Amino acid sequence: MRGARRGSDDTPVETDAAEPLKLDLPQFVAGTLRRLTEAGHDAAVVGGSLRDILHGEVAADWDLATAATPEEVTRLFPDARWENPFGTVTLAGPPRVEITTYRSEGSYRDRRRPDVVHWGSSLTEDLSRRDFTINAVAWRPRDVEAGIGDLVDPYGGRADLRRRVLRTVGDPELRLLEDALRLLRAVRFAARFELRIEAATEAALRRHAPAAAELSGERVRDELLRIIAHDPPSDALRRMERLGMLTALLPELAALRGVEQRKSLPGDALEHSLRTVDALPGHDPILRLTGLLHDVGKASTGGDGHFLGHETVGAELAGGIADRLRLSRADAARVSELVRHHMFAYRRDWTDAAVRRFIRRVGRQRLPDLFALRRADNAASGTREPLRGGIAELEQRVAAEIASSPLRMSDLAVNGTDIARTLEIGPGPEVGRVLRALTEAVLDDPALNTEERLTALARKLHRGGDSTHRTGGGGRGASA
Fold it and tell me: What is the CATH number of the domain that holds 381?
């Protein structure tokens, strides 16, 4: 029987055997392979796309490897893009296809990329440089039109997928020394495909876990967001903690282990944070990251079972983590501001003006996220919202105010030009001051939002008679 042979411990060992395999190739992929092979170049489907197919999934993008050099590939495909030194040419598709020249590599002194890349002519040699056996598989076509070809699997990757085992290609020490990102990739693949990590590979992951701290923020960010997009994210995050990666990458979060808190559900602050992540939607990894970090301030604010001000401390810590992960400005602000506001405590006696100020303080665009975060926080705490006076009621009141009330300076019945003309002054700080005061007045009393009333009030404000007042409400409350 052809395929991977097995050692005495039932571990697949290297073999050059290939087995027939039929693939349902998209027309664009088949045409790409046909053009390469008709030009005399060896070519194969490789890597993640084939791994996903073997796992019973549909490949979104396709990875091809070929003996053709990047220059030869771009001559065959004039619309292709080649913008990297590693021999990868991209075709837009659809579906998107990446064509990489067979290669061998030198040492990885920076634990990120090889010092030297050599173009090669051997598919087997190309597979030997890959990280894990499940990614070191290839399909070489014999009849492109019929989708008939051979599975090339020298390291037993298909068997490992079936046995649900993750292991490196060759010596795990060498594989992990080459690129520290493989530490996180191991966690991601194990979570996504529900694999157990082979003993020698897991031991090497533990030994090399501190090296994850040397990775760039961008690389950590991309892998971390992929990891927490998988359900349930807590499994992968607990594995990161067991292997020592959580301490290396997110020490602020790891510090929540052992921080006790008074919740209906058992567990420390880290367990609560992990349950919160699980309760948030997987299609929004930034919101899940926010759930992971929402209580990060508790490690330094605890006392008598309370964590006074942990949302403020947590917002600063979360902002620092977002910067370290090189999140976009918008995503970083989203994370830190949601952490800052997650402790709101609604009461039924809030006035309508208090609801409007709550909307203004949080920002209407963040309110759906904030309510989702609060619901996840409650679920992770074992807290039940009251039938009356809870989040649902606040959401209804917020929606009503957004639909009917002026909440922003741009909602005023007058603008800066109107104020400058009324006060007979030029543009400047005084116009801005008056507009801000008018906005506050209208938050308290929307009936003031007419041109006539605001013009009269603007004159009083300009003369120094401030007739506005502010109402409270929407403040912080007990720990959530």
Answer: 1.10.3210
How many distinct structural domains can be found in the chain? 4
Structure tokens at 402: 């957004």
pTM equals: 0.85
**What is the C-alpha R_g of the chain?**
29
pLDDT at site 174: 93
Q: Is there a domain that residue 8 lies in?
A: no
Residue 418 sits in which domain range? 409-462
Whether 151 maps to a domain, the answer reads: yes
89-113, pLDDT tens digit by residue?
Answer: 999 878 999 999 998 754 545 555 5
Q: Same domain for 235 and 314? A: no
Residue showing tokens 């602000």 = 333
Q: Is residue 46 in some structural domain?
A: yes
